[in-house]
Amino acid sequence: GSIGTGNEAQLVNLLGATPFIEKYGQVAVLAPQCQRYEDGSYQDWTDLLEDIRTVITGLIEDGTVDASRIYGVGCSFGGHGVIMDAAYNRDLFCAINVQCPMLTGDNITELLSLTDMGVYLTSAEGDKTLPYIAFDRMLMDALMKVNENAHIYIFSDEEMNAYGIGSSEGLTEAQIGSEMHNSWVLCFNNEQGIMDWLWAQSK
Q1: Max alpha carbon distance in the chain (Å)?
Q2: Cβ contact 39:53 at 8 Å
Q3: Dihedral angle at the C-alpha atoms of 137, 140, 141, 142, nearest 10 degrees?
Q4: What is the C-alpha separation between 44 and 65, in angstroms, rounded?
Q5: What residues in the chain have per-residue pLDDT under 50?
């Protein structure tokens, strides 16, 4: 997530890469950012896929990471990118967790092609940023028919509220719906054992 220009937001925002490392310790995290241009448009993930592959294979070759335990994790537009990356570099990844992912024509096809790795899609019932829960369920139902290690979980408003998300006094309905997009906070805190599931995956 966190399209931008400073190559920082995805590192520090809401359990971004830096807090993630602090929480989980012995992990190497690659956190690319798609750039936002002056005209308001932004870089597509397809521009980055080969560079991501180069970095990961370099880390494997120098012994920094275990080639059997390469994971993709991303939220919103980052979830979109993880799906694209896992399909492009499917020989590298063993599992992905995509949270409230942006789903469009190209990566819908790619998501449904991920039959050879673990896939866990999560979102929140009250998410009004990408309010496509029924569509998420439909896609994952189709994937689960051909991938026994595909899963979906939709967090309830009550589960989100327990983390202080969407529960502050004085929030408008629109603000609550926007906050409910932050379901990755629950994932990274291992609700429903999602992180346990992820770390248990290997090639």
Answers
A1: 52
A2: no
A3: 130
A4: 27
A5: none
